[in-house]
Amino acid sequence: MDLFNQSLDSKNLLPYDGIVNYYGPILEQARADYYLQKLLETIAWKNDKAIIFGKEIITKRKVAWHADKPFEYSYSNHSKFALPWTTELLELKQLVENFSSETFNSCLLNLYHDGSEGMAWHSDGETDLKKGGAIGSLSFGAERKFSFKHKTSNEKVEIFLPHGSLMVMKGSTQSHWLHRLPPTKKVTESRVNLTFRTIDQ
Ligand SMILES: O=C(O)CCC(=O)C(=O)O
Ligand SMILES: [Fe+2]
């Protein structure tokens, strides 16, 4: 796999009002398998809490949050303190930084056990994220559809994210577009997604 050519070979998926670069699989199958296994074994996966119609619920999806420092991060109306990097997360952060030519100081991890678990429409413009900062999204395991919807035109853009693939959202994407991981009956395997982010210190 040629790192130099791969990193140049990404196009913007969005027609306007933002930049989403899709790089395709950036890890060979065996390495992607290795990282998926390691992440499942070494991350302290926890069920997340969310507020839905004013009611607190426990999501089936599991999450984890790692960073350079024990940042307090608010997410889905809750705050939590970041854990230190694991060996594999640091390696993957470096890899995503090399491909995207961006830097990150934190990572939010999501574990979806099967297609019944997903994530509702949202954007990641929380106040503690660096304004206009890039978000590097690395996916492992089951291939899932990922959708974008423009906040005013409602235009939709959809992409499938396979094992070991990298997508980078940047520029004004979070201001103008929502994204979600739709649930699906077709997927029975689990998926792990890592979103590398920059917390404003
Ligand atoms: O699982 C994914 O691909 C996306 C997760 C996401 O949008 C988020 O954590 O903010
Ligand atoms: Fe998101």
Automatic annotation (TrEMBL):
Does Oxidoreductase show up as a keyword for this record?
A: yes
What domain of life? Bacteria
Protein's UniProt keywords contain Oxidoreductase:
yes
Record domain Fe2OG dioxygenase: where: 103-200
Its keywords, alphabetically, are:
Dioxygenase, Oxidoreductase
The cross-references to InterPro entries, in alphabetical order and at most eight, read: AlkB-like, AlkB-like_sf, ALKBH3, Oxoglu/Fe-dep_dioxygenase_dom
Picking any one GO molecular function of the record gives: dioxygenase activity
Its transmembrane ranges are: none
Q: What is this protein called?
A: Alpha-ketoglutarate-dependent dioxygenase AlkB
